[in-house]
UniProtKB/TrEMBL annotation:
Family membership noted in the UniProt record: Belongs to the ZC3H12 family.
Residue intervals of the C3H1-type domain: 251-276
Name assigned to this protein: ZC12D ribonuclease
Top-rank lineage group of the source organism: Eukaryota
Zinc finger motifs (C3H1-type), residue ranges: 251-276
Name of encoding gene: Zc3h12d
GO molecular function annotation: hydrolase activity; mRNA binding; RNA endonuclease activity; zinc ion binding
Organism: Malurus elegans (Red-winged fairywren)
Length: 309
């Protein structure tokens, strides 16, 4: 008898644990109607109704509280594609190395610090431009420190040497600044340098706008590469948005309720209540409609169970 009743209510969709609990309370000889009423009173629902409630398109949003979804979203991009949302980085190797060496020594360690900083932020396209003659042994008038770093960066396809040669004992050097500005312009990237490239701005009007808007300056503080948090000034984008192809939406901030937990407006309060984050509620009219729908669904299910019993 016990097993037959359990099987009967399992077919109706109720959980086996709830059925056994009710049978223990009412006894094995309890009528099916009494068992069904006790299951409804306990709040037990058939699995079909639970699944329908879980996949219901009706979304409850609390008034007077912020959404629980993350406020930061990429514009037109998936979060999984975060690495593709970052701009290419083109570094003026000579400018960075001389800046780290206090304009006296070509410090290759400064280039490595800058590369590491961008790699830690997730940038995958990083190019450093250095004249080819920097591969030659250092001289007294042009000292070089940590020259082996250039070889390591070249093996990683990060360092690019600009051409240079000797003609009748004189070195002929190509203009490396034109190389890096051209590559950064074509890649729609960011130029890392403290040089303003005035000559190149006058040479090409398109480059003028690009250099003004995409030049990232920096400083070295105790062997730490530090670009500014506001590369284009106080009213410009943040450093994070400056290095992205598309900006990040700021999180919507809600004004907290001045009355806090003592607020008596309830659902009608338009201010933010942190204690109501998990109390998802509709408007009064929609809430009543939702309750009626749920009660009708439960009544229909109860009627079906009684008829089958």
């Amino acid at each position: 008898v016990h097993q037959s009743k359990v099987d009967f209510f399992c077919k109706l969709g109720y959980g086996k644990q709830d059925i056994c609990k009710v049978l223990e309370n009412l006894g094995q000889e309890a009528l099916e109607d009494d068992v069904l009423k006790e299951l409804i009173r306990m709040g037990s629902k058939p699995q079909a109704l639970e699944k329908q409630a879980q996949h219901s398109p009706l979304k409850l949003i609390a008034r007077g509280s912020c959404s629980t979804t993350p406020g930061l979203k990429w514009l037109g991009e998936d979060e999984s594609d975060a690495s593709n949302s970052l701009r290419p980085i083109v570094i003026d190797g000579s400018n960075v190395a001389m800046s780290h060496g206090n304009k006296e020594v070509f410090s290759c360690w400064g280039i490595q610090l800058a590369v590491d900083w961008f790699q830690e932020r997730g940038h995958t396209y990083i190019k450093v431009f250095v004249p080819l003659w920097r591969k030659e042994p250092p001289r007294q008038d042009s000292p070089i420190a940590d020259q082996h770093i250039l070889e390591e960066l070249e093996k990683q396809s990060i360092l690019v040497y600009t051409p240079s040669r000797k003609v009748k004992g004189k070195r002929v050097v190509c203009y490396d600044d034109r190389y890096l500005v051209k590559v950064a312009y074509e890649k729609d990237g960011v130029i890392v340098s403290n040089d303003h490239y005035r000559d190149l701005q006058n040479e090409n009007p398109e480059w003028k706008w690009f250099i003004e808007q995409r030049l990232l300056m920096y400083s070295f503080v105790s062997n730490r590469f530090m670009p500014p948090d506001d590369p284009l000034g106080r009213h410009g984008p943040t450093l994070s948005n400056f290095l992205r192809k598309k900006p990040v939406l700021p999180e919507k901030k809600c004004q907290p309720c001045p009355y806090g937990k003592k607020c008596t407006y309830g659902n009608k309060c338009k201010f933010y209540h942190p204690e109501r984050l998990h109390q998802a509620q509709l408007s009064v009219a929609d809430e009543l409609r939702a309750k009626i729908k749920v009660s009708l669904a439960l009544g229909q299910e109860e009627g079906r169970c009684q008829c089958s019993a």
